[in-house]
Amino acid sequence: MRCLILFLTVCVPIRPCPPPRHEPPVPITLAGQWRSSHGIIYDVTQQGPWVRMANDSWPADGVLVGATLRLTWRNPGGDPVYGGEYRLSGGVLSGHYWSCDGGRWTAETINRATR
Q: Where are the beta strands (DSSP E) in 18-67?
């Protein structure tokens, strides 16, 4: 008696799983007016990650990395005198600046141009 052995091959197409959907991050825009904890009103402009906080006496320039703003403050003569790192949360920038007195500074949005 002879046996015939058959091998059955079934081809099933395998589709890879689709990649997970990631929403692009919403860019943070700080442009508008902000009032500091010292009572100073700043007009904030932004170009990409670069931020300028202007007022009559103590302007600052900085860069926004994620939700962290790194600023360098200048005195009325234009010399850099303070540095600081501030975190944005709920329309409030808060953090510490580095200077002789190691103070704390916060700013709240007054009239932010865009979100």
A: 32-36, 41-47, 50-54, 60-65
Give 95's strand partners: 86, 105
Question: Which run of H or E residues covers position 49?
Answer: none
Alpha carbon distance, N-terminus to C-terminus of the chain: 83
36: left (phi over 0), alpha (psi -120 to 50) or beta: beta
Provide φ and ψ at 105, rounded to 5°: -140, 135
Determine the residue type at 62: G
CA angle 44, 66, 46 (to 5 degrees): 20
Evaluate the CA torsion angle 59, 60, 61, 67 in order and state its sign: negative
Please tell me the pTM assigned to this model.
0.64
| Cα(112)–Cα(53) distance, integer angstroms | 13
pLDDT along the chain (115 residues), means of 10: 56 69 73 84 91 85 89 80 82 72 63 43
105 in Cβ contact with 36 (< 8 Å): yes
